[in-house]
Amino acid sequence: MLDEQWNAIIHCDSSCDGQFFYAVKTTGIFCRPSCKSREPKKDNVLVFMTVDAAIEAGFRACKRCRPDQFRWPAEELVHRTKEYIEAHYSEPLTLGGISKALHINQYHLHHVFKRMAGLTPAEYLLHKRLTEAKELLEDTDLNVTEVAVSVGFISASHFSTVFRKQFGQSPSVYRSWIQNSNVSKGV
Fold first, then answer.
1. Residues 115, 119, 120, 125: what is their CA dihedral angle, to the nearest 10 degrees?
2. Which of 122, 124, 150, 123 is nearest to 136 (CA)?
3. Other beta carbons less than 10 A from residue 74's beta carbon
4. Least enclosed by CB within 10 Å: which of 21, 75, 151, 176?
């Protein structure tokens, strides 16, 4: 272990997070350098460059600093979450599934996303599905059930209920209204 690494550990230096991880032989736990756990004895500390190396050596992740979970800056986390939802909105998604895919705690994800985006990941997912459904109703001849399934709703009745609640009309009425608007515009 280098002196710089030891200093980072005893001073809980977050600037070294991700550069290395340290494990304590007596506890069997590995941590980030910034972990606020009790200062270990230097003789009991091993340094690992990756999470996988620490796990392969038989150590388990600290429950306080969660070294096995990636930490993105808030803006990056929101961006990655939106990207994931946009790529997978037609699949059955849950907060737990999204957080697992992003290797982040689901409660942290929910909290940060809500604070930064102004809505929850579930609300963002619903918005994405409804936006895509409107486009399909406008641009395709798919029936309401096909639209519902293709944007990730489990049933047409649930889709219709959510659509009506959001837009004040059923998907069928919306489609008719759009078609009549296009006819009157000469489109």
1. -140
2. 150
3. 13
4. 75
Q: Which domains does the chain have, with CATH numbers?
A: 3-61 (3.40.10.10), 74-123 (no CATH), 126-170 (1.10.10.60)
Which residues are catalytically annotated? 31
Which residues lie below 8 Å from residue 133, measured CB to CB, with a gap of 6+?
A: 147, 148, 151, 159, 163, 171
3-state secondary structure of 168: coil
- How far is residue 73's CA from residue 98's CA, in Å, rounded to a whole number? 17
| 15: its two tokens | 């600037």
Residue 58 corresponds to which tokens in the numbers above?
């038989």
What is the distance of C-alpha 15 from the center of its chain?
A: 24
Specify the 3-state DSSP secondary structure of 60. strand
What 8-state DSSP symbol labels residue 72? -
- Residue 18's closest CA among 42, 46, 51? 51
pLDDT digits (tens, 9 = 90+) for 99-145: 988 878 888 899 989 999 999 999 999 999 999 999 999 999 999 99
